[in-house]
Q: What sequence folds into this?
């Protein structure tokens, strides 16, 4: 279509958004799957979740399933979650711990923590059978900012090369990053394209306009200092906390807030987001996992180094789960429905010259990354 050909050449401050079919077309979704997500770095979890031998996390993505496990050598290994005998999955749960081996529940083939075959029943009776000839294929694992990631493509750039400067940015906000542990994790299925969810996440235009949860967030920050910054494949948005607030999220402080306290969010293309709410001592993960052109799984995780959690932190998590999160999800669902309307195809980015706190330049930047991944650069 003509608008697809010319889209990348637009001046951002006068640009029209991606055509609506980018949010529901099956063909475009399949291109995203192959050209974006099969080459992307996917969050596994915090490194402390895989610090003891045998601890494992299973990550499912499209029709693929990956096991990441801490080996007896203390190293984290990742491999495809599939028995090399007849293709049965080795593990079905999300997290767990195995003492010695992963045992296939079908025919009892057993695999070491690095995916190599330990043994198979009756294998000594089979001509030429050698355990060293079988292993679950290995998958790349890297760490950035205290979190582990996997990638199904052996040729894409490393995390440090793809997101230069992101590690420093994250550690500048979370000084206790290496000591964090998982508090809770939940998955929510949303009938919306993954880009609808990301679009909503990377702009402050709607903060003062869209609902009581967002109004409450604005009351916690100095919105005049809200700043959105783009980098090649990552972005940040943050704002100083309003230190005049006495009881954020309805909870009282147990100690005076840090004068440098702030709301913070960092996104790593295409779908990984980490954030911190004002006055809250936790790191939140917000991962968008596409299930189809108009269906996504949102994975919410909360991590902290504190135990027990301060009252304000506990209240902020409850507020996210019961107020702001559902409010954003409702906007995602309503937008997805509207994008199907015969009365809509493209809208106008609200991008100002100053790239101010309400500007949509990060939405345009995100769309540019998607467009280039699908169609290449001019």
A:
């Amino acid at each position: 279509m003509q608008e697809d050909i010319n889209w990348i050449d637009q001046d951002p401050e006068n640009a029209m958004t991606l055509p609506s079919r980018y949010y529901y077309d099956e063909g475009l979704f399949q291109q995203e799957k192959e050209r974006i997500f099969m080459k992307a770095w996917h969050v596994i979890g915090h490194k402390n979740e895989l610090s003891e031998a045998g601890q494992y996390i299973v990550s499912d993505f499209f029709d693929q399933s990956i096991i990441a496990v801490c080996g007896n050598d203390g190293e984290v290994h990742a491999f495809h979650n599939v028995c090399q005998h007849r293709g049965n999955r080795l593990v079905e749960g999300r997290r767990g711990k195995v003492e010695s081996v992963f045992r296939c529940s079908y025919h009892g083939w057993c695999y070491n923590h690095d995916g190599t075959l330990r043994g198979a029943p009756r294998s000594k009776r089979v001509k030429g059978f050698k355990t060293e000839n079988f292993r679950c294929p290995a998958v790349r694992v890297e760490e950035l900012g205290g979190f582990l990631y996997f990638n199904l493509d052996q040729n894409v750039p490393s995390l440090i090369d793809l997101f230069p400067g992101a590690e420093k940015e994250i550690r500048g906000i979370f000084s206790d990053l290496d000591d964090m542990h998982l508090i809770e994790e939940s998955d929510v299925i949303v009938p919306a394209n993954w880009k609808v969810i990301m679009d909503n996440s990377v702009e402050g235009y709607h903060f003062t306009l869209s609902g009581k949860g967002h109004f409450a967030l604005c009351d916690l920050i100095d919105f005049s200092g809200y700043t959105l910054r783009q980098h090649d494949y990552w972005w940040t948005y943050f704002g100083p906390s309003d230190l005049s607030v006495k009881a954020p999220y309805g909870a009282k402080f147990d100690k005076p807030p840090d004068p440098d306290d702030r709301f913070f969010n960092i996104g790593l293309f295409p779908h990984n987001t980490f954030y911190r709410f004002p006055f809250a001592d936790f790191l939140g993960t917000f991962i968008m996992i596409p299930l189809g052109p108009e269906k996504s799984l949102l994975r919410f995780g909360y991590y902290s180094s504190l135990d027990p959690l301060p009252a304000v932190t506990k209240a902020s998590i409850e507020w996210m789960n019961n107020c702001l999160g559902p409010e954003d999800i409702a906007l995602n669902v309503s937008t997805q429905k509207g994008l199907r309307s015969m009365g809509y195809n493209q809208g106008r980015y609200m991008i100002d010259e100053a790239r101010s706190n309400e500007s949509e330049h990060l939405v345009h930047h995100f769309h540019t990354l998607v467009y280039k991944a699908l169609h290449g650069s001019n």
The helical segments are 2-7, 26-35, 159-162, 166-173, 194-201, 212-220, 311-339, 361-375. The two ends are 16 Å apart (CA to CA). Residues 252 and 312 are 6 Å apart (CA to CA). The mean pLDDT is 96.
